[in-house]
Amino acid sequence: MAAPRHRRRGFSRRVRYGLFAGYVIATVGLVLAFALLLVARFDPRAFGTLRGIVVDASALFTGVGRAGVRGFHAAADEMGAYFDAGSQNSSLRRQLAAERRAVIAAKAIMVENARLKKLALLTEHLPRPILSARLIGSTPSGQRRFATLAAGTAEGVRPGMTVRSSEGLVGRVFESGIFASRVLLLTDGETAVPVRITRSSIAALATGQGDGTMEIRGLMAGGRPFRRGDLAVTSGTGGVYAPNIPVAVITEVRSDRAIARPLADPARADFAMVYPVFQAPVAELPVQPKP
Amino acid sequence: MIGRPDNPYAVKPPFRTIAVPVGSILLGSTMGLVPIIATEPIVPPFGLMLLLAWRLLRPEIWAAWAALPLGLADDLISGHYLGTSMMLWTVALLVLDWVDHVLVWRDWWMEWLIAAVAITAIDMGSWAVSQPLESRTSITTLLPQLIAAILLFPIVLRLTALLDRWRLKR
């Protein structure tokens, strides 16, 4: 079939001018779009109000269907649980006994820790969560990894705050509307979390890879510092994330680097807690002392 | 079509003729709001696929600048930097204008090929544009989305044809 001949200029001056104006507007729009991209490159939080309004509007769409999806997940899990009920029961009993012993030991250590901290006059200001809210959606068709949180500036959620679930760190608030906000997930390429390996207390940096995993690089060069199954928790360096929040488990070691999977699966997390920035940057610069 | 705007005898086309294409593309963009929380891009870009389908089916209803507002809406919904889809979709429509002049005779597989190339190029472009400076995201994360989009395109084209028939029904 022949393609329809559109854009034919013909004899009408009006049609010709109309076509020409269309191309002019398209070119001007291209330049404008490029300028917008440049603005975004230097200030990713630009146009926050406009984007916030869209986040709010899209939360209305997403929030309705989310309950159904969650019910579907739960039903699938329950059906799966019937098939291996017998063998799972005995192994769970064994695990429970072991865990109970570990919990008693951990409680003793906690008490001792508190006593030692008091002795050393060490004070910590661990932040308290501001609120808990539901994670209701994400941007599954875009190239960035955002989740939508059902709380916004009306409840005091501001960009930069930390979001975690009961399993571990989820991410940071990227932009917020009035009653919904976007959370930059751990797996996004922009995320970088200073972590510590619990087994060896080596400091490392975990960065998102965009495909559901994170890459962990040691801050010291050389050696093979990671093992499969190592747990990475936040180290508190830099002051954004509070220390000792579980982040990821190492699943694969590549010489001096490792691939890790985040512990908190945002797809299954019902609620996420929002924490303020651990230690806000100093607002006033220290004044130079007078001679 | 050509005449004074206050001509009382001119037949005004119903609102539906333009609302259906624009509305369906916007609806395709909001498919990115399905209530799942994905840790990798898995949902194909339905807004882009519908725009390409409408453009291949009915080139004459689109002005050259039509992709600018549609792309802006897609950027806002999908969380890309503002301007990503605005720029890439407009460039794609301009290139398609040129393709229409080169390829006069077209078959269904040629339209599929054109759409596949366009979707791949635009997805890679938006991947490149949305990389933060210190990012390490691999380009292979695009693959599931791309394969799904290319395989689903003929269905989207059929759906568009159905919508088009309904749109022009009297």
Element layout with pairings:
The complex is a heterodimer of chains A (291) and B (170).
Chain A: H1 13-42, H2 48-83, H3 85-119, E1 131-138, E2 146-149, E3 162-164, E4 169-176, E5 181-185, E6 192-197, E7 203-208, E8 214-218, E9 231-234, E10 246-254, E11 257-262, E12 271-275
Antiparallel strand pairs in A: 1-2, 1-12, 2-5, 3-4, 3-12, 4-5, 6-7, 6-9, 7-8, 8-11, 9-10, 10-11
Chain B: H1 16-30, H2 46-57, H3 67-78, H4 84-102, H5 108-129, H6 143-167
Helix pairs in contact in B: 1-2, 1-3, 1-6, 2-5, 2-6, 3-4, 4-5, 5-6
Give a verbal description of the structure:
The complex is a heterodimer of chains A (291) and B (170). With 291 residues, chain A is of the alpha+beta class. Among the domains of chain A are: 91-123; 192-263, Rod shape-determining protein MreC, domain 2 (Thrombin, subunit H), CATH 2.40.10. Helix content of chain A is 35%, strand content 24%. Chain A is built from three helices and twelve strands. A six-stranded antiparallel barrel of chain A has the order 1-2-5-4-3-12. In chain A, strands 6-7-8-11-10-9 form a six-stranded antiparallel barrel. The longest helix of chain A has 36 residues, at 48-83. The relative contact order of chain A is 0.12. Chain B is mainly α. Chain B has one domain (20-163). The relative contact order of chain B is 0.15. Chain B contains six helices and no strands. The model of chain B has no long low-confidence stretch (mean pLDDT 87). The interface between A and B is large, with 71 and 64 residues.
Which chains share the greatest interface? A-B, 71 and 64 residues
Distance between the termini of chain B: 18 Å
Cα gyration radius of chain A (Å): 26 Å
State the low-pLDDT regions of chain A, or none.
Answer: none
Low-confidence stretches of chain B: none
CATH domain class of the domain at 192-263 in chain A: Mainly Beta
Range of strand content of chain A: 15-25%
Radius of gyration of chain B: 17 Å
Question: Judging from the principal axes of the Cα atoms, what is the shape of chain A?
Answer: extended
| CATH homology group of the domain at 192-263 in chain A | Rod shape-determining protein MreC, domain 2
